[in-house]
Amino acid sequence: MLPDPAAGAVPEIDAAAFEVELRDSADVVVLDTRDREAFAAWHVDVAAGNVTNVPESEIEANPEEVLELVRPHPRLRVICTAGKASRRVAARLGEQGVEAVSVRGGMIAWSRLLRADEIAVGEGFEVVQFRREARGCLSYLVTAEGEAMAVDPAPGIQPYLDAAEQRGVRVAHILDTHVHADHVSGARDLASETGASLLLSEAAVRRGVRYAKSVETIADGTVIPFGSNRRATVIALPGHTSDMIGLQIGRTALLSGDSLFADSVARPDLELGDAGAVEAARRLHRTLRERVASLPDSTLLLPGHYAGGRRQGPIVESLGSVRSRVKELTLGEDEFVARVVLDMPPKPANYASIIAVNLGEDLPPDEAARLEIGTNNCAAKAEWAVA
């Protein structure tokens, strides 16, 4: 391992500014110092393809080879998992006359960036969609009559607080649609910060939530008020997990959690494992046929995930459009089950540990953050994994 540089000895860039560079500049070159397996599974998306993977150990063993790779590039950014190895490598390159800037917080900080877009849903509601573009996770702030509900909030809660303040609304409710397996939930932190009620389905609590005393349980048909005149209704959508719920916003939109996406259906194996995947897939088929098929084609689908990557504008589709695109919705039960179980990609990295944390297991924040390294892989389709 290379020696640690003195504090302030290495130039750094924060993750948000780094992402701006990636979006706006074609001349940024990224040197990823993680091991090759981690890089192959998941890495920074550089528009011009200027990303090179050389593990720190190889740089230490043969720095001249790395210098030849990076010397011609004046805008060199070095990244690792959490920002420590990248500082060491940047310092070593600096000693060799190469100006290198370390990404503060590394892949963890970059993966937690949120990009917000508003979605017009009508009936007095406003919705802000937050995209974790590095991982394909979607979350929401639903507002009406001066009150807001955060749905499936990510671990970094400040963007939700900022969005509520900008709109002059009070965060009154926080909802997790299920016990997540691909990312650490920010729901408890946001509830603690705002004093809002923390909502989980009764089925989620039955899965063994350790903080159940601080939870307000909800079930299929529970009506959640916004002010005095607006209502959202909980709808049970089991299949991806036994506790999956969605939220009908008035008569115009469905927050579908991880049951139905804009281009796929959910995978059924993350709660019950391979042995329970077939039965869970049958339950998901019934959910989509009995609970979603009855909704009008004009209903706006607001999913819990997408395939990841930088987008211009929110991820939102009419159910009519989704029905024409997602062929699984046209299949009978047996064919649906066979298709969904066959198409499952590798499970999300560290999914069992992430479930444990979201059920209430205590881990230091930095350890919990490391669990999220990797793709989310919550859809059934193998090609849907975030690169």
Quickly list its features.
alpha/beta, six-stranded mixed sheet, 2 domains, Metallo-beta-lactamase, Chain A, seven-stranded mixed sheet
Shape: globular
Could you say what the CATH architecture of the largest domain is? 4-Layer Sandwich
Q: CATH topology of the largest domain, anyone?
A: Metallo-beta-lactamase, Chain A
In terms of quaternary structure, what is this? single chain
Strand content: 15-25%
- CATH superfamily name of the largest domain? Ribonuclease Z/Hydroxyacylglutathione hydrolase-like
Number of helices: 14
For the residues shown, what is the average pLDDT?
A: 91
Give Rg in angstroms.
22 Å
The description of the largest β-sheet is: 7 strands, mixed
Q: What is the highest CATH level, the class of the largest domain?
A: Alpha Beta
Give the structural class. Answer: alpha/beta
Q: How helical, in percent, are the residues?
A: 25-40%
Summed up, the domain count is 2
How many beta-strand runs? 18
Widest sheet, order of strands = 6-7-8-9-10-11-12
Tell me what you see in this structure.
The chain is α/β, with parallel strands linked by helices and 387 residues long. The protein folds into two domains: 12-110, 3-Layer(aba) Sandwich (Oxidized Rhodanese, domain 1), CATH 3.40.250; 113-384, 4-Layer Sandwich (Metallo-beta-lactamase, Chain A), CATH 3.60.15. Helices cover 32% and strands 23% of the residues. It contains 14 helices and 18 strands. The chain has a seven-stranded mixed sheet. Helix 10 crosses helix 12.
